[in-house]
Amino acid sequence: MLRNHDRHFLKNFTLIIVGLHVVAVVLIALAWFLHQRQPVEENATATAEVDARLQPVAAVYAGATGAAARAAAAEAARTAAASEVAYGGTLDGKVVYDQLCSACHGSGVGGAPVMTQAAWAPRIAKGHDTLVQNAIAGFQGEAGVMPPKGGNPALTDEQVAATVQWMLDNLQ
Fold first, then answer.
1. pLDDT digit string (tens) for 119-152?
2. Which residues in 104-124 are b (16+ Cβ under 10 Å) and which e?
């Protein structure tokens, strides 16, 4: 009798386990089916990154048509660069100084003269035009290096001149 009871238990237990497996397989199939019906949302950032990686690194220009294409590409690049003016094209020297120049001239990093009369006196003696020209073209001094346009090539010459004037007007 004990043996018959065990067999009956194992039969029922096996049926329950098989039934649970069937339920699990049905739920997995239902989840897979519902997932496949969902529209795939494209990630705009990932798509843009892939497009950027697929851009050609360079172009090849050959012959007369290549020279024309190269000239057109160079003109397009100049036009694009001209349209990207730093700091909205402002001629407020304080804005440019605060955003760019103060990084070096505020603390004297790299030999940059701080905003004091004593530090600027030898430079002022060379003349205003020389100061502006050195700020635009860059300058290799004894104490350090001034990069062209303070390291921001998007600055216009007028912005650089206005910033130099603001700095001279605000020396302490």
1. 878 888 888 888 888 888 888 877 778 888 888 8
2. bbeeeeeebbebeeebbeeee
Residue closest to 150 by CA, chosen among 163, 140, 169, 135: 135
User: Among 87, 105, 97, which Cα is nearest to 144's?
Assistant: 105
User: What is the length of the chain?
Assistant: 172
Domain-by-domain residue ranges, the chain? 1-38, 88-169
Could you give the 3-state DSSP secondary structure of residue 142?
Answer: coil
**Across 48-67, average pLDDT:** 81
- Residue 20: the pLDDT is 97
d(CA 134, CA 81): 22
Question: To which residue do tokens 């955003």 refer?
Answer: 99
User: CATH for 88-169?
Assistant: 1.10.760.10
136 touches 160 (CB < 8 A): yes
pTM (whole model) above 0.70: no
